[in-house]
């Protein structure tokens, strides 16, 4: 199916993009070499099979295991700043003009014992420099990695509170089946009054009961992926009534096994049911994709029309946790095609 929208040229919005999953292969090679721990692979082509997921894997957990090389690249504060700067530069190269980058301080600081607050400052510096240089409006989200346990989640919530003037939201990610939403009710409640928004990874590897519980027990504003929402009409109705936005990522959802085939992805069906669907990259470095590619998948495999592309982009602007004044400015500056 053809579309009249030039997807590469059109300004875009990416709400679900992991900093740890957005590192260039060349940067991985550089950072390991610069820190005296060169990788066995000498080129991007050699490294790709070990640092990327280019075909579907058996499970989400298998995909997450491929993050080891990227996780180890956060050697020091300078590396954090470089990775953040380049992540925004890559957004601009794909004409993404509004984006949110999320990261887990526990995950990225663990290998080299980095101080969480110092890493935060470095990431903020890199993001701010690139945002100014490349005209990309960016919000930062802190992730509590569920696999690290409840104590780590509590520490991450305290970290988010300290940096509430720099961050826009708090997130939960990792194995959702082993860590249902109700476990985090007190953690999330502790953020009340911080001004931080809430998005949570549910509905990616678990059934519809997980996104339902995330909405009912945590009052999550957005669902990371939310693919399994489509399995239960009552959950579809719930997210529509609560105006819970789905951060859907077609290529990621296929490669992690959230859907058996891209053609079966529920994004279009849910959009047709007036659920606020958005389309995102998740981990562009890990999956070797950009947002243009993901929207092309929606057009070519899911039958998105120009109106559908406008709707998901408008949904993303509306759902972004960036402050309203910044959103209004970027919409006026870049998104006339959506409102036309």
Overall description:
- With 340 residues, this protein is an alpha/beta fold.
- The protein has one domain: Metal-dependent hydrolases (TIM Barrel, Alpha-Beta Barrel), CATH 3.20.20.
- The protein is built from 18 helices and 8 strands.
- Strands 1-2-3-4-5-6-7-8 form an 8-stranded parallel beta sheet.
- Helix 5 runs parallel beside helix 7 and helix 10 runs parallel beside helix 11.
- The radius of gyration is 19 Å and the shape is globular.
- The mean pLDDT is 96.
Set down the secondary structure blueprint.
Elements: E1 12-18, H1 25-34, H2 44-51, H3 60-64, H4 68-71, H5 77-93, E2 96-103, H6 105-109, H7 116-134, E3 137-145, H8 150-162, E4 167-173, H9 185-189, E5 197-202, H10 209-218, E6 222-225, H11 233-242, E7 245-248, H12 250-255, H13 267-272, E8 277-279, H14 284-287, H15 291-302, H16 306-319, H17 324-334, H18 336-339
Parallel strand pairs: 1-2, 2-3, 3-4, 4-5, 5-6, 6-7, 7-8
Helix pairs in contact: 5-7, 10-11
Task: Briefly summarize what is shown.
This protein has 18 helices and eight strands.
CATH topology: TIM Barrel
Strand content: 5-15%
Tell me, rounded to a whole number, the average pLDDT.
96
- Helix fraction bin: 40-55%
Separation of termini? 22 Å
Main beta sheet: strand number and arrangement? Answer: 8 strands, parallel
Architecture (CATH level 2) name: Alpha-Beta Barrel
- The domain count comes to 1
According to DSSP, the number of beta strands is: 8
Shape: globular
**What is the structural class?**
alpha/beta
SSE string, helices as H and strands as E? EHHHHHEHHEHEHEHEHEHHEHHHHH
């Amino acid at each position: 199916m053809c579309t009249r929208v030039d997807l590469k040229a059109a300004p875009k919005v990416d709400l679900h993009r992991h900093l740890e999953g957005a590192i260039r292969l060349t940067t991985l090679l550089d950072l390991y070499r610069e820190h005296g721990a060169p990788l066995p692979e000498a080129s991007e082509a050699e490294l790709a099979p070990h640092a990327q997921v280019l075909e579907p894997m058996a499970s989400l957990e298998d995909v997450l295991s491929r993050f080891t090389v990227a996780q180890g690249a956060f050697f020091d504060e300078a590396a954090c700043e470089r990775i953040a700067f380049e992540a925004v530069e890559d957004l601009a190269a794909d004409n993404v003009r509004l984006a949110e980058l999320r990261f887990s301080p526990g995950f990225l600081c663990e290998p080299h014992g980095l101080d969480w607050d110092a890493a935060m400052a470095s990431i903020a510096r890199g993001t701010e420099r690139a945002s100014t240089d490349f005209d990309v409006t960016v919000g930062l989200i802190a992730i509590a990695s569920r696999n690290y346990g409840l104590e780590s989640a509590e520490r991450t919530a305290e970290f988010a509170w300290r940096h509430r003037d720099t961050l826009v939201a708090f997130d939960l990610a990792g194995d959702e089946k082993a860590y249902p939403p109700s476990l985090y009710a007190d953690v999330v409640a502790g953020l009340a009054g911080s001004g931080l928004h809430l998005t949570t990874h549910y509905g990616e590897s678990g059934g519809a009961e997980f996104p339902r519980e995330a909405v009912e027990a945590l009052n999550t504003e957005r669902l990371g992926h939310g693919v399994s929402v489509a399995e239960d009409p009552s959950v579809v109705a719930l997210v529509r009534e609560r105006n819970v936005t789905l951060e859907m990522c077609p290529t990621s959802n296929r490669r992690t096994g959230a859907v058996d085939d891209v053609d079966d992805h529920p994004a279009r069906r849910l959009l047709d049911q007036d659920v606020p669907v958005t389309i995102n990259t998740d981990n562009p470095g890990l999956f070797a994709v950009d947002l243009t590619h993901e929207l092309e998948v929606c057009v070519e495999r899911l039958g998105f029309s120009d109106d559908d592309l406008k709707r998901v982009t408008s949904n993303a602007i509306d759902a972004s946790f960036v402050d309203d004044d910044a959103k209004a400015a970027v919409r006026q500056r870049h998104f006339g095609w959506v409102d036309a």
